[in-house]
Write a structure and sequence with these properties.
It contains three helices and no strands. By secondary structure, it is mainly α. The protein has two domains: 38 residues; 44 residues, no CATH class.
Length: 82
């Protein structure tokens, strides 16, 4: 019975430590925010999508400029990556 008690105590300590680690994680914090304000995750996703679309457009523009420079320097059209 004593071994069972000690084993359970060790398991309880492990669970408590895991719970504390979880509560310190960014995922847990995000879950709490979403629980308090359910629409916030959609807002964050839309905001991130908008930023990624802008970054993609900027990179496309930069790629076009570089392709023009390659063409100008080599006299040949650059192969398309996209």
């Amino acid at each position: 019975m004593q071994r069972l008690h000690e084993s359970l105590q060790l398991e309880i300590i492990a669970v408590i430590e895991s719970l504390e680690q979880l509560k310190g994680s960014a995922e847990y914090e995000l879950c709490g925010i979403v629980e308090q304000s359910p629409g916030v995750l959609d807002e964050l996703a839309a905001e991130r999508t908008k930023l990624l679309e802008q970054e993609s457009a900027d990179l496309r523009q930069q790629a076009e400029k570089l392709a023009d420079e390659i063409k100008e320097l080599s006299g040949e059209a650059a192969s398309r990556i996209i």
